[in-house]
Design a protein that fits this description.
95 residues, alpha+beta, 4-stranded antiparallel β-sheet, two-stranded antiparallel sheet
Length: 95
Amino acid sequence: CRCANVHRKDELLVALEKEWKYPLILKPAQGTGSYYCRKVESKDELLEIFDALDERFRSEKKTPQDDVSAGWILEEWFSGLEVDVDGWAKDGEVE
């Protein structure tokens, strides 16, 4: 799965010079859960939504600055099962 971390539209345009398989997912690199996550079917659709989505994300007063500074992740969509594994460590040992 191909992915890229971008912070601005010019970085997005550079990332899009590579060959991508659509659809793609654009999501914040950190925080917000799936709130700003978008699935796009084409380069045109991605470019159309990026500016408005980025502006809303940056101007949201509740969004921590660290989350904004992390930018966006662009990744190829894949379908299948999602598996989550939870665990913890105590005193440096996995339990």
